Amino acid sequence: MAPGVAMRVYFPKRFIIPDSPNGPVRDVVDRLTVHADKPEVTVRDMIAGFGQTSFLPVMMAAALLVVSPLSGIPLFSSVCGLSIAFVASQMFMGRDHLWLPKFVMNQKVSGTRLCGALRRITRGADWLDERAKRRMLFMVRGPMRKGLEFMCILCGGAMPFLELVPFSSSILGLAVLLISTALLTRDGLFAATAAVLMAAAAMVPVTVVSAMAG
Predict the structure, then answer these.
(1) 214 pLDDT higher than 70
(2) Taking a C-beta distance cutoff of 8 angstroms, is the pair 181, 25 a contact?
(3) Rg of the chain (C-alpha set)
(4) By three-state DSSP, how is residue 98 classified?
(5) Beta carbons of 186 and 213 less than 8 angstroms apart
(6) CA distance 58 to 2
(7) Structure confidence by residue, pLDDT tens digits, 89-119
(8) How far is it, in rounded angstroms, from Cα 106 to Cα 169?
């Protein structure tokens, strides 16, 4: 297969570690941490433990990495954004198995940097888990759920274009993280907060361009 050509990716049906006693966000961090002792970790390594139908945890993993210090690595936010867009698109279309392009799956990051980044976001993951609860259920059901999935497509697709705009990709990553958490925990308030963050992220490039023009 030619480099960069999309390929079907089947993930193991079983998780590689037991379910975390913590909430869903911390669970994703714990699953990513399993691979942090390697010298280099590929995207394939990082998401292989989530299972072939675990769309939301995989999308949450990409969003967590965007809001971590790893976002300072050139093009890293773009790779995560494309991953988010691909996963969200397949959720939106109702696919039952996940696939990602080969060039995304083969991207690497230092295990040391991954470990450090995950340590820094653990407290934030616990904070989200502690506050997530069932509320405003209309925001995460029916047509609204499809709307949230489409919002994730927009966020992920915009990240490569905002690579050079400070903080914008991290804001979008946080929005996707909140949407993923909202869909997993049925927390409509988190979904509404994500919509506000998307609006704020849209204003960042506008503000930057206006400042440069002025």
Answers:
(1) no
(2) yes
(3) 16
(4) coil
(5) no
(6) 25
(7) 999 999 888 888 888 899 889 999 999 999 9
(8) 21
